[in-house]
Amino acid sequence: MINPGNGALCISIVGKENARLWSGLSDDASRVVCEVELFAHVSLDIVDERATKATENYLGQVYSDHLYKCFAYVSSTGVKFVLVTDSKSQGLRDSEMRAIFKKLHHAYCNAISNPFYVVGQPIKSKHLTEAAKQIFAQ
Amino acid sequence: MSLPFDLLHMEMVRYGKEKEAVARADYPKEVLEGLDKATSSLVYKALASRNAETNLESIGLRTGFLLAERLCRDLPRISTELEIMKFICKEFWISVFGKQVDNLRTNHQGVYVVQDNRFPCLTSFSDGTQYVKDAAIYLCFPCGVVRGALQALGIQALVTPTTDQLPSVKFHIHIKTKLT
Amino acid sequence: MSKQQKPVGVDAKKMSSELFALTYGSLVAEMLKDYEDPRQVNLQLDKVGFNMGIRLADDFLSKQAGVPKCTDCRQMAETLSKNVIPAYLGVSATVNNWESGDREFSLQIENNPLTEFVEVPQDLTSLHYSQMIAGAIRGGLEAVHIKVTTTAIETPTNTVIKVKFIEVLKDNLPAGED
Q1: Which of A11-20, C59-68, C109-118 has the lowest mean pLDDT?
Q2: What is the pTM of this model?
Q3: Where in the cell is it found (chain C) (predicted)?
């Protein structure tokens, strides 16, 4: 059975040395928070590996199992953006995925530009909260 | 660079110097009494953990870090050391300083010399050698900006300026840790 | 070797504005490390702005030949909101909240480029983040012999600069002059 909607469950932003910077969950993920976050975390090794050989920032789908899929994007500055989706959902086209990561990267830049933000620390920002909200609602 | 920015930079230098002067006034006079001018000057610099130069460099560091993150977002992926240096000298320099650098040299062992013959932070001084010493402090913020941008891209480096004749400057970049 | 592209649509003015905003933000962050009390930072930002304002006044007057000399507060407020602020911040401001019989007013700046990315934390509500702008207005006006007090207040949607007219400064005659 294919679920409508994009199936996006969790967004995770990880900095250098795997510092957890930000994460956001959709309403659908509220029942499976731990599983989804663990899945995102486990995918990071693969993201690291793919990033070293990457010729562009968008890495596409990096990992999946019977329940979830993981898409990733790594900036030239080494910041990893990970999106976990439900493997049963309709999913998103490649161009839509790329647009999502561009939006997240944009929001991340605005969030860290807050003069009161200390680089490397977890981020609290309306820019990211708002961007995530729009992505989950797509 | 715009007039408001130049004025802000001037004020940052003034603020840094004033803070340093206030901090100096607190230094134990017994320690400094009896030292000759050169030695006491060195002692001042050693005691000042936050002198004007480090203050300005620190402001530059954060600024450069954020600017690099924003700028490389819309560019093709930058991975190698050479690509990073090219980015700094072209797109980054254009965005921050309004022009490309004039020359880039390297010894291929982690040392780069970036030369700018008309550096915007120095154009408000008269050309030539007269104000080289006074202008030096106006290079602290730019050094910080460059160091911050390199840091964002994964390179820890030491950035030091030398200037023989205004408004020309050379930035010496010594890379301490390379990318894997 | 891949060809390096030019930055897509690098807007020189936008970059210049971003550089200014980020530098200012880094300066505020640095000042907060130097002083425990945010109100001390407000004073420093005001001083920074004041010194900048004096020089900006020269620049403004040399470029804006058509601007009439201000004879009253209303005209002064008009010039600030329609000419001065747009010239240096790139955005316009609206004038409102006239008080004390036309001697006090507010300049409301909608899209203040300085605060675009700023989210002031709860424990720093006494910080007037845009006090540099307030200081610059005070300095600029003092350069044309108008003494005012100014304060910058941030609201969730905009920046408000409260301006209060004090007096017109006359040159002090040296002692002994008739």
Answers
A1: C59-68
A2: 0.90
A3: Endoplasmic reticulum; Golgi apparatus, cis-Golgi network
